[in-house]
Amino acid sequence: MSENSSNTLGVMLAFIVGGIIGAGLALLYAPSSGEETRRRLREEMEQAGDKLRQGYEAAVDTVEEGAGKVKEIVEERKGEFVAAYQAGKEVYQKEKGRHTKETA
After folding, report:
1. How far lies 90's CA from each of 22, 83, 94, 104, in Å?
2. How far apart are CA 64 and CA 76, in angstroms?
3. Are 61 and 70 in contact (CB under 8 A)?
4. Burial level of 98, CB count in 10 A (0-12/13-18/19+)?
5. pTM of the entire structure?
6. Cα–Cα distance for residue pair 63/78, rounded to 1 Å
7. What is the pLDDT of residues 37-95, one digit of tens each?
8. What is the structure's pLDDT at 10?
């Protein structure tokens, strides 16, 4: 689950950064006056920044939600884990005692 979230975040960031670079290059090579080009570039960068912030916030929310779910599952299963550990420990102690008696 963590690897999937990481991959999704990486793809999203790569897409956004690629879009920013593409928009900047398109504006730089477009036949416009310098003032018009700078204005359009500034607007595009502001929009790209907003999209990047929104994407980042969405990614953070997704990661926090996933972490919360994992924490809930661990808390729910904590008793089962402890019981399984204790059962394994008891079996180990019995077998260890039996093996010691057999070799003595």
Report:
1. 64, 11, 6, 21
2. 18
3. no
4. exposed
5. 0.44
6. 22
7. 788 888 988 998 898 889 889 888 888 998 888 888 888 888 888 888 898 888 888 88
8. 80
